[in-house]
Amino acid sequence: MIELTQVSYGYGAGTLLNDMSLKLAPGSFHFLTGPSGAGKTTFLKLCYGELVPTQGSISIFDQDARHMSRDDVALMRRRVGVVHQDCQFLNHLSVAENIALPLTVSGRPMQDMRELNELLAWVGLTSQAEAKPPELSGGERQRAALARAVIMSPDVILADEPTGNVDWDMSIRLLTLLIELNRLGKTVMIATHDMNLIRHAKSHVQTRVLRIAGGQLNTAGADL
Amino acid sequence: MLFSQARNFFAADAQADRVVPPTGFTARLTIFAAGAMAFLAVFALALSLASGRLADRWGDALAKSATIRITAPTDQMDIQALAVMEVLATTPGVKSARPLSDEEQRALLEPWFGPDLPLDRLPIPRLIELVEDENGVDADGLRARLAGEAPGAVLDDHNRWREPLVRAADRLRMLAYVAMVLITALAGVVITLAASAALAANEQVIRVLRLVGAQDSYIARAFVRRYTLRALIGAAVGTMLGMIAMLLLPATGDQGNFLTGLGFQGSHWLVPAVIPPVAALVAFIATRQAALATLQEKR
Questions:
Q1: Could you report the predicted ipTM of this complex, rounded to two decimals?
Q2: How many percent of chain A have pLDDT more than 70?
Q3: Which of A104, A130, A153, A156 to probe by mutation at the B interface, max B CB count within 10 Å?
Q4: Which fold has domain B72-151?
Q5: Is domain A2-88+154-219 given the CATH code 3.40.350.10 in the classification?
Q6: B282 near B191, Cβ under 8 Å?
Q7: How far apart are CA A4 and CA A46, in angstroms?
Q8: CB atoms within 10 A of CB A70
Q9: Is A110 an 8 Å CB contact of chain B?
């Protein structure tokens, strides 16, 4: 599905990620942890083609990321749902329009509003459907971002610190949604430094915890 | 290819149009620029059409006529005039010829010498007006024959008057064309700048659209459609105002000459209708190039 082989990435002269190899199998659930600035976000960006490795290769759905055209990248992103910590909405559109945006840009308008309403209900945003993103709380924004990430029924969901700005209850609620998606066969990778969240997840779903530190990618220790 | 692009362009749904937020400044700039350019284009168009008509008019009017001027002693004048008329009667290409009467010659000289000119007491040359048929007269041949039959007769075929006038009118028409090309190019530049500013201001929008899987063509189309429609609306308003201004040009009667003919005439009133579509086409090309260039810089 997504496979990194001896991938390195650096900004300027420095190397942030060094010689990393990883294979994301279909239906797997991963956590990516590590200290701030270790390169978790960069790692995720490599996984959805926003960045290309300076060394090594990344295969995304059997395509070499280094040789994908911008249109190929766009088509690939319809199969990879991304949840950013800062959500990244179009503030002039309503929450419902933002959630439906992947369908809009891919020329696949909603067959009927029921599908969108079900998704809004799933993330608990039915009453905020017509609100604008700046009117939402942090947790609501994260749930809206999650709804937008899954509306195309992607094969892979990559979430970058999805619980970074929300309280514990909301974190558990978001985690539960992601676990539900994983049970539907989606591959999930969550970048977080919240160890409690990881421990909570391990009691509900089989996870693999990866740690980036010092530019290296390793499987996290048994203390988790 | 072009057809499918045009179909996609016009078939864009309302939701797709909304992905680009309204941008007040660049929107107003585009509409104003397109309107102003269209307004100026109406005048440039009117100038080119009027100078074309003028060149034709001067060319036609002077090309088909000539004047024979007879300068001779008074007692020889009638004899030479008669000889000239005989020569003309047997010259191919002459449709008609007639000596100007004293009244007509007086009328010609009146603007310079007043109405009381004593023509009979002044050594005024006799003038014979010659109208050519569609084949025209062999001027050199006619001059040679006149030199033999009527030594005081000089053929003036108006070439030395006509050529600079027609050349001036043609040059004027060329300048009007250059003005139209410059106006079109300037419209393209202004709209490109406006679109580039809008694209730069909407970097976050582009990033989000990319994130959710929008292809370059979709993002470009959202901007291109908006700016093309704005240019079309602005140019339509500018063209209308320009045509109203042309209608309001004061009529100066026959004395106005070139100024009287500066407006549109007959079917030429329909020609400015091409300005809004041309403006829209310029906006389409300019915005599309700007959008694709901007998008190419970002992965």
A1: 0.86
A2: 96
A3: A104
A4: Alpha-Beta Plaits (3.30.70)
A5: no
A6: yes
A7: 9
A8: 15
A9: no
